[in-house]
């Protein structure tokens, strides 16, 4: 088999349609090279001779393991600690004080709805551990469509070059530095890891099983969907936000024309009516 595999327009459209059906993600024509590059190594590993053959393998329904592998390869997982830091500042300075004044003692629940390898969920947990002075229960849930990134998130191990953006005090208090064969890595301390639960979830499906939340971070993921799919995803997410709860989206995203069920309190920060 040649070391170079070329994906045809028809093969690309087949994968684009499959991903749209499976995840709601819209792969534009500009993503053709990305699809080819990310899947080529997998084809070589399996000894599959063409993208068409691989498409038939993953779309047949007979190999769910490989189907999940394909989804993992074609979804984007770019993230880092304390991304868009003003969101964490607003959470600490405005949202948490209001939540702590709530009369009932039910756990405060925050959902990182596209958590990737866990940096956002752990950033939320560190913020809560630092700022919540009251003995009030709280929970963080991180979800992602990719099984592989959920496994990485649960481990909580990161290269030191990914530590930019973490406040020095947090870096000292909430991370363990690797030694020996683990040199060059940091691991989130057990006290933080045990406060965060990760689970696999598809934004294109029902979220009823995850429960209700006071705050949802749905950031830097809506950009991958068309307008109709954005509306459906946001509609499902809002059903899981408690009345008066907050929704955070990415700074390159907007809910204009998507929903009127929340009102903006800051750019990219909304509150459910």
Annotate the secondary structure layout.
Blueprint: H1 9-23, H2 32-46, H3 51-59, H4 64-74, H5 85-100, E1 108-112, H6 119-131, E2 138-144, H7 147-155, E3 157-159, H8 168-174, E4 175-177, E5 185-188, H9 190-193, E6 196-200, E7 213-218, H10 227-238, E8 241-249, E9 262-266, E10 269-272
Parallel strand pairs: 1-2, 1-7, 2-6, 7-8
Antiparallel strand pairs: 3-5, 4-5, 8-10, 9-10
Helix pairs in contact: 1-3, 5-6
Please describe the structure with a list of short key phrases separated by commas or semicolons:
273 residues; alpha/beta; Chemotaxis Receptor Methyltransferase Cher, domain 1; Rossmann fold; 7-stranded mixed β-sheet; 3-stranded antiparallel β-sheet; globular
Determine the CATH superfamily of the largest domain. Vaccinia Virus protein VP39
Instruction: Write the CATH fold name of the largest domain.
Output: Rossmann fold
Oligomer: single chain
Low-confidence blocks of residues? none
Order of helices and strands: HHHHHEHEHEHEEHEEHEEE
Total of DSSP H or I helical runs spanning 4+ residues: 10
